[in-house]
Fold each of these.
Amino acid sequence: MPRSVSGVEMRKRQAAHIEAPPQAPGQPRSNTCCLCWCGCCKCLWNEDRMDRSERQTCTKMDSIEAAEEQRASLEEVLSWSRSFELMLRSLEGREVFREFLRSEYSEDNLLFWLACEDLKKETSTALVDEKARIIYEDYVSILSPKEVSLDSRVREGINQTLTEPSSLMYEEAQFQIYTLMHRDSFPRFLNSTVYRDHLATRRRLCLDT
C-alpha cells in the first residue's frame, strides 16, 4: 500500500494542471493516467515530468501524454464549438475553458469535477480517504475556501458518507457540476472573447504556416 501523503503536499501536486482526458457521465472509463496528486506516475500534470530530450525512451502512455502537449489544430479548436466533451478531452481546450471560468469566478467547478475524476480512479484505500477528505475540505464544507455550485440535498448526501469515504462518494455531485458547466457555462464560453480570440489566433497561425 502506498505511503500516506500529507494534505499540504498533495495540494501542491494538484495546483497547476489537471487530470488525464476526462470521460462523459455514463461512458466507460479508459485506462488513462491519473492526476498524479500522489506522484504515482509520469504524466503531463506531474511536477517532475521528464525533459523533452528524455521522452525518446518514454513508454506508450508517456507517448500519448507527450502528444497531447502539442498545440491543438485549427480543426480541433473549431470542434470544441460542436462538443463539450471534445473540448474537455483536449489539454488546450481545458486550459482555455478554465481561463474563461476564472473570468466568471467559477473555475472551482471545473477543478472539483476533475478532482472527482481522479478520486474515482484511485484504488488505494489510504489515498481514497486522503483525497476524499481534501475534496470535502476544499470544495464541499461550509468552511471551504472555494465555491462549488452544489445544492443542499447533494451536500447533505455527501455529509452522510463522510464516516466511510469511497471513490464514488462524490459521483452525484460531480454529475451535477458537469451538467451545470455543459448547459450554463459552455454556451457562454463559445460566445466569449476568450474562445473567439483563441480561435482567431489559431487561424492566423494556420495562415502563416
Amino acid sequence: MGSTGLLFLFLLMSLLQLFHPQFVLVSGDYDLIQKTCRSTKYYDLCISSLKSDPNSPNADTKGLAMIMVGIGEANATAISSYLSSQLVGSANDSSMKKILKECVNRYNYSSDALQASLQALTMEAYDYAYVHVIAAADYPNACRNSFKRCPRLPYPPELGPREDVLKHLCDVVLGIIDLLDW
C-alpha cells in the first residue's frame, strides 16, 4: 500500500473513531474478554457466553462478571421453567411430583442467589457476590440429593447436563470475581 493509501486509511480510521469510537476499541475489548476468560475454569464457555451478549465488548471486568451472572440467572430460571412445564406435569408418581417441585424451588433459589450476587457486584461488595454465586451453584445439589433420599426414583437424565451448565457458569463467574480488586 502506497503512502496515499496509508493516508486514506489513517483518515478513515480517524473519522471512524471520531463518529463511532466503539468500533475502534473492539479488538482491545476482545482482548479483555479473552484475558478474563483465561482466568476461569471453562474458557470456551466463558468466551461463547460473553460473545453472545452485545454489551461484552464495551464492558470492564466487573461488567463481564455482571453479564455472566445474568447468563447464569437466565439459565437457572430456564431450568426451573423446564422442570415446571415438562417434568412436573408429566410425573405420575406423587413422590416424584413432590421432589420435582422441590427442584423447581431449588433452581428458583439459585436464580435468586444470582440476582443477589448481581446487586452485590453493583455495590462492589465482591465477597458477598462470591458467596451468593457459591450458593447458586450449590442449590442444584439439593435437588439431586432429594432423589438420593428416595432411591426408587431415578434422577431425570435430562436434568444432569442442565445442572452441569449452571454449575460451570457459576464457576466462570467465580473466576471473574477473583480478578476484581477486593
Amino acid sequence: MSTILDTSIFWGKFLYYILESLVYRIIPKKKKNVAGKIALITGAGSGLGRLLAITFASLGAILVLWDVNEEGNMETCRMIKEKDDVKVFAYTRNCGNRQDVYRVADQKGKRKKTMDPLLLPILEQEYVAPKVLNAILEEQVYWIMPTLLHVVLLLKEIISPDMMITLAETLEWTPPWLC
C-alpha cells in the first residue's frame, strides 16, 4: 500500500513542479531586493565579475570585491564610486581558486577556444551578466547555460553509458563528460 501512496505522491509533486516551471516561464518570479544587502563579487577586477559588480551597485547593494588582480579590482571600485553612492570594499585575494568558466579572453586579449562550439560556445560577458544577475535575484538554485546543455544533461541521465559511447562513436563526437 505504501508503494502506491509513494508513487502517487511522487507523480503529484512531479506534475506540480512541471506546471510551476511552465508558469514561471510566462509570469516571472518576484526578484529579490538587494538594496543595502552585502554582495560578495569574486573576479570583480574584470569581465563578468566587473559587470556584475557595476549592476549590483546600481541596485544599491553594499559591495565586497575580490580579485587576484589588484589593479583591475581597484579600477572596478573606482568606477563604481564615481557612478553610484554605495559602499564598496575591494580586497586582493590570491587563493588560486580562479573561476575561468565564464572568461572570454585571456590576459593577452586572445580569444579562448572551445572543444565544441555548438555544445559549449564561448559566450560574451555582456550576454551572460544579465542572465546571471536574473538567476541570482530570482534565487534560482542552479543555472545552466547555454540552454542546449539542459537537453544534454537529460540525455546523460536517461541513456546508458554504453549507448552514449555508441552514439558518440557513430556521430564522431566526444561528449565533454567523457573527456
